[in-house]
């Protein structure tokens, strides 16, 4: 294309020159025109030659580049052919190796088949010999193979049971050490950090007086004063020969406290008559209600609990005059609240909410109407009524498993309630139920074969079982201890824990005469 452009340029140059000459001829300057034409032709020839030379140079340059490109392509093709040939040689070598391996595999397969045939023949011969030996052993021992197998299985079962009990004991001990280590640490730290006094309330209060002459004034003419006092307070007043003391009997501690305060004010004032009695009782009951509210407020301030509904504050104050199995309910609730806060902080939970749930967990024991509902469910309904949070309500309702636990605070409240109530000395226990529990423990210990005696000691917190050394081995003693502990755990109800100790003693006694 560039060569054509040069040629066309030369022709255009000649044309231009001719045009100019024609114009000059037309004007009448023929000589000058002819000279110009000659010059133009000469110049055109020079331009033509230059363009042709440039075109040839360009052509030669393009031809040289084209040849270089062809050489490079041929070299690449040659390299590709060499690689293909090399791969072909490699594939041929691998194919040869595979053929060789296939021949070796067929040879080994044939050898193995022969070996299998030999082994099958030997196996048949061994089975025949085994049958002959079994028949000979059956004739010698007088037992069939099945009978001998059953005896062997029984022996192996006993050995396996013994080994299994040892293994179970070791596994259980290891699991207790590893899995319960942190839980024990938390419980122990919680108990050690909380200390509280134990108050035992009775259904009877004693009112002390300065002299026995005051008894006549309290009774009044024909008993009218004492009858008015009993009618106003709802408390039975017992005036007997006890020196300088009057007994107030009532199962409601609040009414009993109200009667005690009224008596104290009447005796201090000296004016004792029915009208005065009714006035003093009304004032005393009002003062007692205010004291109950103050007690609730003070308790919440001491524990750092805020935002309780006034009615819940009043119920917390009423706990001071209630008891559960001889344990003061307010002291118990305060203790549970502190235990819950400590345990929750140890576990990284909300300590304030746990303390709140621990304080309110027994409010179902101090309602005014006392409906026929378990105290846990009643307390949960009261907490819901006075807009407590769902976590607190669930912890109150679930601390005796009446409802399902839905938060982590609920089991903490349940555990702390058990820790507070099950500690030795915290609660009174009815003698009859205590004796029955001791008898059940000893009966359960005697229910195993080989047991000679069983004794419940330490107020039923330890069961010592004495076994016959001739009939029971050490491993079987471990098994008996484990079985008794599991039965106690599944069949009996008891506070705290019961330690089971199995004693196997061998005595050799001789008499020298």
Oligomer: single chain
Q: List the strand order in the largest sheet.
A: 1-3-2
What characteristic shape results from the CA principal axes? Answer: flat
Helix-strand string:
HHHHEHHEEHHHEEHHHHHHEEHE
Structural class: mainly alpha
CA-atom Rg in angstroms: 56 Å
* Mean pLDDT value: 80
Largest sheet geometry: 3 strands, antiparallel
**DSSP helix fraction:** 55-70%
Q: What is the rounded distance between the termini? A: 147 Å
What is the number of helices?
Answer: 16
Number of strands: 8
Sheet-strand content, in percent, reads 5-15%
Low-confidence stretches: 195-201
Walkthrough of the structure:
- The protein is mainly alpha-helical and 513 residues long.
- It has helices at residues 2-27, 30-141, 145-179, 181-193, 213-219, 224-233, 253-269, 274-303, 310-318, 329-346, 351-360, 375-385, 390-398, 409-422, 431-446, 474-491; strands at 204-208, 236-238, 245-249, 323-324, 327-328, 451-457, 462-468, 499-505.
- The chain has a three-stranded antiparallel beta sheet with strand order 1-3-2, with helices on one face. A three-stranded mixed beta sheet has the order 6-7-8, covered by helices on one side.
- The chain is flat, with a radius of gyration of 56 Å.
- 23% of the residues are buried.
Question: What's a concise summary of this model?
Answer:
The chain is mainly alpha-helical and 513 residues long. It is 69% helix and 7% strand.
List key phrases describing it:
flat, 513 residues, three-stranded mixed β-sheet, 16 helices
């Amino acid at each position: 294309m560039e060569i054509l452009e040069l040629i066309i340029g030369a022709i255009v140059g000649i044309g231009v020159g001719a045009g100019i000459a024609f114009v000059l001829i037309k004007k009448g300057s023929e000589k000058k025109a002819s000279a110009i034409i000659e010059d133009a032709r000469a110049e055109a020839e020079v331009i033509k030659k230059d363009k042709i030379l440039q075109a040839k140079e360009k052509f030669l340059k393009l031809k040289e580049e084209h040849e270089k490109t062809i050489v490079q392509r041929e070299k690449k093709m040659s390299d590709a052919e060499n690689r293909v040939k090399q791969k072909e040689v490699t594939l041929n070598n691998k194919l040869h190796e595979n053929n060789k391996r296939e021949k070796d595999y067929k040879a080994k397969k044939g050898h193995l088949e022969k070996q299998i045939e030999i082994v099958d023949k030997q196996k048949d011969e061994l089975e025949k010999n085994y049958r002959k030996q079994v028949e000979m052993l059956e004739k010698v021992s007088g037992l069939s193979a099945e009978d001998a197998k059953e005896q062997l299985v029984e022996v192996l079962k006993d050995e396996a049971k013994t080994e299994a009990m040892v293994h179970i004991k070791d596994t259980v001990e290891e699991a207790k050490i590893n899995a319960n280590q942190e839980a024990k640490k938390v419980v122990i730290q919680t108990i050690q950090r909380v200390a509280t006094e134990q108050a035992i309330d009775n259904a009877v209060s004693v009112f002390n007086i300065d002299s026995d002459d005051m008894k006549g004034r309290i009774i009044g003419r024909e008993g009218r004063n004492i009858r008015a006092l009993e009618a106003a307070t709802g408390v039975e007043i017992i005036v007997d020969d006890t020196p300088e003391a009057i007994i107030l009997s009532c199962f409601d501690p609040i009414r009993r406290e109200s009667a005690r305060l009224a008596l104290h004010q009447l005796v201090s004032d000296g004016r004792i008559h029915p009208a005065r009695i009714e006035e003093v009782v009304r004032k005393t009951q009002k003062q007692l209600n205010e004291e109950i509210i103050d007690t609730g407020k003070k308790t919440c301030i001491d524990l750092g609990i805020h935002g309780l509904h006034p009615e819940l504050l009043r119920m917390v104050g009423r706990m001071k005059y209630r008891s559960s199995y001889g344990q003061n309910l307010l002291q118990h609730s305060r203790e549970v609240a502190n235990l819950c806060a400590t345990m929750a902080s140890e576990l990284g939970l909300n300590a304030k909410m746990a303390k709140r749930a621990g304080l309110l967990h027994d409010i179902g024991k101090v309602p005014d109407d006392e409906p026929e509902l378990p105290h846990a469910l009643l307390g949960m309904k009261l907490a819901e009524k006075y807009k407590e949070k769902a976590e607190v309500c669930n912890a109150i309702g679930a601390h005796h498993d009446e409802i399902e636990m839905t938060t982590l605070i609920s089991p903490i409240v349940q555990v702390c309630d058990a820790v507070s109530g099950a500690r030795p000395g915290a609660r009174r226990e009815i003698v009859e139920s205590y004796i029955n529990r001791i008898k059940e423990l000893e009966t359960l210990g005697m229910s195993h074969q080989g047991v000679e005696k069983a004794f419940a000691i330490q107020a039923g917190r330890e069961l010592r079982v004495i076994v016959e050394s001739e009939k029971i081995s050490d491993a079987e003693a471990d098994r008996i201890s484990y079985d008794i502990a599991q039965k106690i755990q599944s069949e009996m109800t008891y506070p705290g824990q019961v330690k089971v100790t199995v004693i196997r003693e061998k005595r050799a006694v001789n008499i020298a005469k």
